[in-house]
Amino acid sequence: MADALHVPFVYEPAEGYNLVAPFIDEAAWTTFWRQNEAPFVDKWIRSLPAGLGLDAGSGTGPYLPVILKAGHSSVAFDNSAEMRARYQLKYNSQFQNCPQPDYRMGSLEAPLPFADQAFDWILCTRVLSHIDNLPELLAEFNRVLRPGGACLISDVHPQHPYNHTGFTIYPDSIAFPDGYKINIQTNKHPVDALLKTSVDTGFAVSVLREFDLTDLQQPPDPSMFKKLYAQPDRKIFYVLQLHKSNH
């Protein structure tokens, strides 16, 4: 009975991200991603010819600045209304003179509400770990991507020692002086299975990079990331670049 009391409550992704949206851009892990994932994603976005992209699981829009500055148009697609609100605030405060991104609400677990070959590129960062059916989603990515199009996927590596995507939020300093932990449903998809599924759904693999502590451009503070330093040889995240053939 005592053990049962300590089982954490796990939120579905949309509900969980609605709760963490007001806090996520200031989270320690957001800084980690900004310092270590973003350089590779930014470079990839800037390398693409200006076109129409799908930001699949767009969140609060961490890559909106580089998308707009690189001359792209984009469709932001997410299932969290609160994340969408933060995305819109970011656009309104920084990019009013740029084309308004098209923001659609919807789930990546369902068929995508877009026409065949609608996009020149697809960006999907830290989303697949919230997806149950990888073959269905990657097949949909292939369907809506134009021939010759590119796709970049990044995510927490399945070797990373965690069971749920967790955030500590601070809604009330009196009721929760140490913060309140939000755990979000997470699926650990093996990288080998992701590569096989990518090929099986019609993609070719361009680049796969897997990062441990020694690969990071800016290693984080050990006092804030104790689990990483306790197992330094385990992979933390990956970046996968795919492309669709011209035929």
Structure characterization notes:
- The structure is a single chain.
- The protein has nine helices and ten strands.
- It is of the alpha/beta class.
- The protein has a single domain, classed as 3-Layer(aba) Sandwich (Rossmann fold).
- The strands form two sheets. The chain has a seven-stranded mixed beta sheet, sandwiched between helices. Strands 1-8-7 form a three-stranded mixed beta sheet, covered by helices on one side.
- Helix 2 runs parallel beside helix 6 and helix 7 packs across helix 8.
- The radius of gyration is 18 Å and the shape is globular.
- The mean pLDDT is 90.
Number of strands: 10
Helix % is 25-40%
Oligomer classification: single chain
Put simply, the count of helices is 9
| CATH architecture name | 3-Layer(aba) Sandwich
Percent of residues in beta strands?
25-35%
Mean pLDDT: 90
Distance between the termini: 59 Å
Q: Order of strands in the sheet with the most strands? A: 4-3-2-5-6-10-9
User: What is the CATH superfamily classification?
Assistant: Vaccinia Virus protein VP39
| Number of structurally distinct domains | 1
CATH topology: Rossmann fold
Low-confidence stretches: none
The top-level CATH class is Alpha Beta
Rg result:
18 Å
Largest sheet: 7 strands, mixed
Secondary structure category: alpha/beta
Order of helices and strands: HEHHHEHEHEEHEEEHEHE
Shape: globular
